[in-house]
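Example record for the data management plan.
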Amino acid sequence: MEKLLIIGIDGGATKVSAWETVFDDQAKCFSLGTHHSEKKYSEIPGFIENFVPVDVKTQLDQRDLQPIPVTPDEVQQESVYVETCAKVVEKIVEEKGVNQVLIGLGMPGLKTEDKRGIAVVANGPRMINYSELLEKRLAEANIKMVAPIDHLGSDADYCGIGENYSDVGALKDYDNVYYLGGGTGVADALKLNGKLVALDNTKEWMAKTWEMQSDEGKSLERYCSASGIQSIYAELAGKHVSDLNKASIFPPQIAELAAKGDKDAQKTFEILVDKLSHLLFSRITTLFSGWQSDFTFMNPARPALSKDHPYLSSYFDKIVIGQRLGDLLVSKETGDIFKSPLIEKLKNLISASNTLDSAAKTHYTAIEQIITVSQLREAPALGAGIDAFFSWQD
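Corresponding structural encoding:
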């Protein structure tokens, strides 16, 4: 293992973040190494600043075509994304001084049939040849891969894998856990009966957060992601998100404004508490009694959820809040406006529930001890590295 460099890569919407992944053969767990590299796509020559994605409906219609008719701009942007990823890999290889490399990679979007490319993505280019192009680029740099990239994974699944197999993971010591990570987007992960369960495999009875719709017709992702929280404040304050970015006003700064009495910032957190408490309550009741029709769906054609599933009458041992949403929850600025009201609202929902029985209500009495914050900010990258290792072992 000393001669093998495992690199886990989190390919986000604006940048690539890569981490050395270390396997402890004695403890049988993984951890982040000391070597890390990240780079923005916009730093690479040829990046299309005003790139406009192909309409998602068109992408879905074209998904099964062979080949998928990508546009020249998508081809150009794909080359930039590949180059960005190659740069971060090169940096870690150079710093580590090990040239036997195993790569795991998480990317947003629906994957191609071979799972090595991106066939549908909302906010970026389709990249149907991504893995092949990256492997070729690394070979040109004389980087030796011990195996081809097996598949591109999802950040949500990789959050669960990272949290479950890391030495500091929040899922590893519990049987039933729900993980909600809020960064640029939102990631859901589940561990039930001691095993990770991808939400792609629960779609008949539990929906992903981004699929669910609030009363205002917005995706619940808006109320759990850092970018969404920023957009709520911008709307209330009559400002543009671009202006907030220029002024470096992100959720932590919005919390500071709320603490100083800014009414729009305070209202932002009131909305956040309301939506997040109902989402977590829905997860609790869905696990225990099946879907209770708490929310409608962004896709009105989505099949109705079933009230039946294999885990009925179960309780969550832990509910883990991760990434920037987790940072926000434990911020010293948000105790009175976020954490305390969230716990109180959730306790009230549980107490008044007609779905949970007395034993379930007793279990969730100390909900403040069940809700915990992840200590693993880089869970997606670590999970990618772990998944690559498992795939290689298989």
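Summary line stored alongside the record: The first strand starts at residue 5 and ends at 11.
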